[in-house]
Amino acid sequence: MRLRLITLFSICLLFSCAPARFVKPLKKKQHAANISLGGPLIKYGTATIPIPFITANYGYGIDSTFTGFASFNITSALYGNFQMELGATKQLLKQKKYFPALSVTPIANVIYKNKDARKIYPQLAINAFWEYGKRKNLVYLGVDNWFELASKKKYEIKQQNHWMFMPMIGHSIVGKKWSFNIETKV
């Protein structure tokens, strides 16, 4: 049973299971810190169960259209893996009535266990978002793309999937000093 759980968590650490970090850039010199809870649904025996991932994030508004950020996966650390993301969100277009604002988010996902177990996964998200209401709540949709650079998996097995395409949709409710986000990603 213990070996199954270790294997299960090891498999889960290979996939992006966190929500979009910053779909809309922060204001210039604005700081933001958050904790996210999310994760994949996996098949375990005959049941489909959620695997919770807890991630701590920090972002800084470099200017009103560009935000840099870093994230640290707490759940991975509890299992002896260092896993973090370094990225930036750049807004390309502003919202014009019903036409959405557009942003792009390149990310480097770094996973490290030891000298034999280390990976970097490039990721690119393209987002469309609409603000509404007095507090500028946000509705967004986008596509997240993970890229596998290695030609082989563990045990010298040929890597079949070099591109993981993940559509997503989400909603952010914004308060004065907080926001609540909900997102689903396939």
Question: Can you walk me through this structure?
Answer:
9% of the residues lie in helices and 58% in strands. The protein has 186 residues and is mostly beta strands. The longest helix is centred in the first third of the chain and has 11 residues, at 2-12. The chain is globular and about 55 Å long.
Helix and strand composition category: mainly beta
Identify the overall geometry.
Answer: globular
Low-confidence stretches: 1-16
Assembly type of the chains comes to: single chain
Mind summarizing the main beta sheet?
Answer: 9 strands, antiparallel
Number of strands: 11
Show the helix and strand layout.
Elements: H1 2-12, E1 31-38, E2 41-44, E3 47-50, E4 53-63, E5 66-73, H2 74-78, E6 82-93, E7 101-114, E8 117-132, E9 137-147, E10 163-174, E11 179-185
Antiparallel strand pairs: 1-4, 2-3, 4-5, 5-6, 6-7, 7-8, 8-9, 9-10, 10-11
Short description:
With 186 residues, the chain is mainly beta.
